[in-house]
Amino acid sequence: MKQGSLDNHVSDLKAKSIYSSNRAFIRLPTCRIYLNSFLLNDSYGSNLRKGKWIKTIVYRNYFLRFTFLFCLIMFTQFAHAEFVWNDNCVEAYNEVSKLNFRKASQILANERKLHPGNLIPLYIESEMDFLHSFISEDEVILDKLKKNNEARIDLIEKNKERSPYSRLLIGEMYIQMAIARVKFEEFIGTMYDTRKAYKILTENKTLYPDFKPNLRGIGIIHTVIGAIPKNYQWIVNLLGMEGSIKKGFSELKQLLAATYTHPELAWEREDIIVILTFLEVSLEKDKNKDILRKRFYNITDLDEKPMLQFAKSVFHLACSENDSIISLLENRKQNPNAYQIDYLNYMEGTARLNNLDFSAEKSFLLYVNNYKGKSFINSAWQRLAWCRLLQGDIKGYQTYINHCLENTKINTLSDEDSQATKEAQTKEIPNIPLLRSRLLFDGGYYTRSLNEIAGKPMSAFPKLRDQLEFTYRLARIFDKTGKKDKAEQYYIQTLNNGDMKPYYFAANSALMLGVLKEEAGDTVVALEYYKKCLAMRNHEYQNSIDQKAKAGINRLTK
Questions:
Q1: What is the pTM of this model?
Q2: Residue 537 in contact with residue 501, Cβ under 8 Å?
């Protein structure tokens, strides 16, 4: 090797090395190796004493030069933890959004080989575990999420001061665990994880006020806190937390807007659309449907993204756009290598049945045969029974509805499952004209729904339950078609006749009367109806009706 060439190599070794990627760089510190002269012979020792130590080593041992450089790079990569959303991480996160967990894991394995100091893969793996647990309702996967996140958080904690992403990722992991725990009714754990997330994300916002990704986690928490009824807010205050639906929505919408103006945040956009869709549909009374709809316009490859298909179906359901749900779900592509959301089969079956299309039976059977969780299993058996009943097959109805009694895995948080179980226990076969009218109404086919029951004599509804449902269904149809006076008349009739009964018709009539009065600006009477609704206990769909009544009270008392 020529002397000039050797000098250049020595200069390269003594200079600060730089490891770079597309999005970030890490500077390697200047390093020296001090070797005692006794490791070499006297002539080389004299060169060391003259300050020519590194040149002598490299010149003496060409292999050592590369060993030294390799060790320097590997040491520095492990010593310097970083949080880099490079191309590998963005690609892996996109695969997670498609529920293609295997491919995402392969990409992350490659990322670890290339950049072992990058901690972003820990968060992406946590997202995988969370989605797997949430969708599957598998307690083993939940335990895996909790165990793995404990180790992930410990590792990130050691590098907490290096980046605003450190606290962000820890907070997001606590939120994931909190949401996953709800499915398994681990409410104490949910409160603990939520408080931990709130504390660390609030701290991160104070330290880095302009760090936009922080708005996601803190926005979710503020929204959930705001949705808690006023009479339970003391628990939130005791935990040292505060928030509101308005504040949470504002933060999430700010982040969504930032994903369009800051390309480095584009990877968050579709997640925020999913989150906002679920929250706004559930909690916002005066939804701007056009704004919600436009969010889905520019999404590419929707048929490859099950979570977005789910969110868009929920939006169409809230807008009574039943045909749009059918069109979206029947044409979706299902990647055999990706994890499946079996609930989409349940949604497709429900949409088809709401149009009195009995091919829905195929979708419901796919759901009950493939899904290993517990949510909406009894509801699916009930709807299978309805498919048979509406085709005149009483024996088929009884066969399917009896599965509700055999199934021991019941989600007690699901009103739909509870109501299905009750129908099986009471052995009360639904009134067919009323059932047809109800399904068509749920699908948004209001004229067809009215035609099923209009002009029917009261003798067609001999049971008290059927009589209450008859006046209730008329009220709902008139309400949705803008005939508010007629709607109010039938709501009041249903409320007066059904108070103290175990059916949901009277309670929901009180709720709807509250909504009508609130829209008319009569907040005093509206509040009375909401409180009356809450006072009615032990009826069907208790959880969902109570939640809406509490939301109404919150709106009028803040």
A1: 0.82
A2: no
